[in-house]
Design brief:
Length: about 400
């Protein structure tokens, strides 16, 4: 597999760090997850729901924990003790990568910071994930996904717009998943892989510093650029797009659907299906620039037409003329979608407490080295004896 032979020591918990560790495990790395004795990763207790065993009884494996810890070994170590610290140092000495999400300075209290571990393993790639990074005036603050979605501007562009100075639609909204944590896990994975690649030339490891706030700002993408380049402060537009029109949801006869018109040719085909072909010839709607400037006049006309047919009828008509459109699926509809099934986006694994654990698959598809799912998310301390006895054997051999 692509990362076979890479050893990862995962000291992180909750989501951003564990997400990075799971990706590396999916790619073939050996990942050892260090957890607190008795309680383990916080997310083990973030339920319900919890996994049911083959007898239908609820286990201690929360759905939240299961989503981010596939492919790892779980080892319980009390790092507040000298013995635990020594064990982690031994594991780090034999690792290529370490992932941690302590508060700034937290790892140093135990002698497990980058500077300390680099002395015993100069090749170590040490990835630190915090709310605000290792530097700056906010470095000592704790950071959480929800908080940082707000501080980083993401919530200011998510949700329904204000009307006449009054809030409608609930005002600013966070994303429906912990998107900042997920994106930070992805950036952490990229940073780790880049540092491993650089190590091939230098022979040296380094610290990779990831901040939830930095990642949130980076992923504002076109909205950030709208401000930096155009001087425009982006506002909430609900399901509409700031730079493309029409690119939004519409109410139809039996619910809602999405239309994503990306160019002028698609717009002409779209309004032709609606029975409004003349709109594509009007100067104020002919180009996307004009449609953005005149969206308040255009959208009501399109919306009135969209109410005339049910969703599936519209979608069939749009597909015939290659106008991008789709339904707003519930999660159950997502996993019943034939495309999702064809892409094998659900993986079924045998868990010690359930013979048919279902998880979302990794979306990366390799032509030669496909991802293999051989290790389910571990039970707390499931591999402690194996891993720690191996350390004891090394100590005896060295002595």
């Amino acid at each position: 597999m692509p990362m076979s032979g890479v050893k990862v020591l995962d000291l992180s918990r909750v989501l951003a760090g564990p997400w990075a560790g799971q990706i590396l495990a999916d790619l073939g790395a050996e990942v050892i997850k260090v957890e607190r004795p008795l309680s383990g990763d916080d997310t083990r207790h973030w339920g319900p729901p919890y996994l049911a065993n083959d007898a239908g009884q609820e286990t201690e494996q929360s759905a939240y924990y299961l989503c981010a810890n596939r492919g790892k070994q779980s080892v319980c170590i009390d790092m507040t003790t000298p013995e635990g610290q020594a064990q982690i140092r031994q594991l780090a000495a034999d690792s290529d990568v370490l992932i941690e999400n302590f508060k700034v300075g937290g790892a140093a209290k135990y002698g497990l910071d980058y500077q300390s571990l680099a002395k015993i393993n100069p090749r170590l790639v040490y990835c630190s994930i915090t709310g605000f990074g290792q530097t700056g005036p906010y470095a000592d603050r704790p950071g959480y996904d929800f908080l940082v979605q707000a501080m980083g501007g993401l919530m200011s562009v998510t949700g329904e717009p204000d009307a006449s100075g009054e809030q409608v639609g609930g005002g600013p909204q966070k994303a429906g998943v912990a998107l900042t944590d997920i994106m930070t896990g992805l950036y952490a994975t990229i940073g780790i892989q880049a540092a491993l690649s650089e190590r091939l030339h230098s022979g040296q490891g380094q610290q990779v510093d990831l901040a939830l706030l930095d990642v949130t700002v980076a992923t504002l993408a076109n909205q950030a650029s709208n401000y930096l380049v155009g001087g425009q402060i982006p506002q909430r537009l609900g399901n509409a797009h700031p730079n493309i029109v029409p690119y939004q949801s519409f109410v139809v006869a039996d619910g809602h659907c999405i239309v994503a018109v990306g160019n002028d040719q698609q717009f002409a085909r779209f309004v032709d299906v609606l029975g409004l072909p003349e709109l594509a010839e009007e100067e104020c709607y002919r180009s996307n620039v004009q449609r953005v400037l005149n969206r308040d006049r255009l959208i009501p006309k399109l919306q009135r037409a969209m109410l005339e047919r049910p969703r599936d009828e519209w979608l069939a008509l749009f597909e015939q003329v290659q106008v991008p459109a789709g339904p707003i699926n519930n999660i159950d509809e997502v996993f019943e979608n034939p495309q999702i099934k064809a892409r094998e986006m659900v993986v079924e694994m045998e868990h010690p407490e359930s013979s048919a654990l279902k998880l979302v698959a990794n979306p990366i598809k390799f032509s030669r080295t496909p991802i293999r799912y051989s290790r389910p998310p571990p039970r707390l301390g499931e591999h402690s004896d194996t891993v720690l006895s191996a350390l004891s054997s090394i100590n005896k051999t060295q002595s």
